[in-house]
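Aim 2 progress update. The chain analyzed this quarter is reproduced below.
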Amino acid sequence: MSSLFMGCLLEATASTGAAKSAGMLSLLLYMVIFGAFFYFVLLKPQRKQQREHESIVSNIAAGDSILTTSGFYGVIIDVMDEIVIVEFGNNKNCRIPMRKDNIVEVEKKDGAE
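Predicted C-alpha cells:
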C-alpha cells in the first residue's frame, strides 16, 4: 500500500514539475515578446529621430535660417564645434551664442533643405 502511495506522489510531483517548466517557458516567451515590442515601438523610432537631428545639425553653415527649441527664428552667423552664433531679427546687436542641440529645423541659405 505504501508503494502505491509513493507511486502516486511521484507522478503528482513529476506532473507539477512539467507544469512549472511550461509556465517558465511561457513567462520567458512573454518577456521576449514584450522586449521586442518595446524596442520596435519606443527605442527604434527614437534612435532614427536622433540620427536625423544629428545629420541636420552637422550640415549647418553660416547664413542658414534656423528654428530653435524655444520657437525663435534666426540666421546663423558663425559655426563652432558645439556652439553657433545666431542673429535674431534685423537688429545686428542681437547675436546670441547657443548650443547646436537647441536647433530644431534648418533652412539652407540657397533654399535647398
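The chain has a mean pLDDT of 83. Helices lie at 2-58. These observations will guide the mutagenesis experiments scheduled for the next reporting period.
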